[in-house]
Amino acid sequence: MTKWKDQSGPPSPLRAKFGKTGVERLEGHPAAKRAKVDGADIFYIPEFLTKPECRMLIASIDASCRRSTLLTDSPDPDFRTSDSSDLDRWDPKIRAIDEKVAHLLGIPLEHGETLQGQRYRPGQQFRAHHDYFHEDQGYWARMLAEGGQRTWTAMIFLNEVEQGGATWFPQAGIRMKPKPGLLLAWNNMRPDGSANPNTLHEGMAVVAGTKYIVTKWFREGPWLR
User: 8: which DSSP letter?
Assistant: First the structure.
């Protein structure tokens, strides 16, 4: 297994506070289930979104897709091959979902990045990566100015996929198959507020069909200005 060097900052009381709040909120939610894994805070909620909400988001993604990008160049041209769409957070239908996710985790709305949609067609994938920022990288100064480190990730599957397309956490040992409306949320930090390498995850290649998801990332500071 690949050895990942952790260069993502020391323990942080602020990041730890966001992690603790999110865990408490999810543990108190009647529909939330904690994944039976060690070393990471991972939760899921079936049918968090309705089928009409999922269909609306799929249509919005299809209307404005572009090739997905990376913060840093990768020597692997197949590292991330999906399509992405930055959804309009001021559209009332999108804003309602934004607010629902933020309320679920107890995080102020202004700490949330724009809701991003992703589309994976057969053969498309996103190889194993962390959502938190590596603070030794050249992009960190810009990320610091734009709200700092990512704390929580909330991902929602919008449809079933004929074959493939699971989200896999190889270090934590969990694999989630796409189901319409299923929310998957995880704390990118350890309890002490340092980055958690066990949140390494992969969007596995779609074999047949098309996979649609939306992802909401939250920062330690306000992202929205």
Answer: S
